[in-house]
Amino acid sequence: MRQIRFFAPVVALALASALAACSSGSSTSASKSPAPVPASSPSPTAVSTGTKVSGVATAGPVCPVEKPGDPACAPRPVAGAVLIVTDLNGTEIARATTGSDGRFTVNLPAGAYTLVPQRVEGLMGTAPPIPFSVGVDGAPSAAPLEVQYDTGIR
Q: How would residue 37 be classed by pLDDT, with cut points 50, 70 and 90?
């Protein structure tokens, strides 16, 4: 019986130490897919290092009859759109969720990527994928990226 009493506190102490190490910010996860970024963040960031690549997601048309220059018919921002960044092999590298103003930001190392917008409830289909690259000098090939969803209004 004494051996069991001694063993249980040792196991509990080891488990508590392991949990403390995990919650202190050290991570041993091999996953390359970061967690989704909450939409409440003004400029969501999916990766903590690299070059900032930003953009905006909008939906249009807003009016059944478009009038050039009419601000009431300008495309509206799309809040809560999930945007996935993949490499040339289709592997997810980063993920961002647009804020209430439709804007997003991700940090990426140099390379060639595709921004893959996901379906947004209430909008037709999905926005088309956008290929882009980040140069070795840290300059994105296109700034900002423009994600265009279709409202279905005709």
A: very low
- CA of residue 32 relative to chain centroid, distance: 13
Amino acid of residue 83: L
Q: How far apart are CA 133 and CA 137, in angstroms?
A: 11
Range among 6-15, 23-32, 94-103 with highest mean pLDDT value: 94-103
pLDDT score recorded for residue 142: 59
Give the residue from 110, 105, 107 showing the smallest Cα distance to 133.
110
Q: What is this structure's pTM?
A: 0.65
Angle CA 82–86–88, to nearest 5: 155
CB count, 10 Å around CB of 5?
Answer: 8
Phi and psi at 2, nearest 5°, equal -60, -35
Residue type, 73: C
Task: State the pLDDT at residue 82.
Answer: 98
Instruction: Tell whether the model's pLDDT for residue 154 goes beyond 90.
Output: no
CA distance between the termini of the chain: 78
Instruction: Quote the DSSP letter at residue 68.
Output: T
Dihedral sign for Cα atoms in the order 18, 24, 27, 31: positive
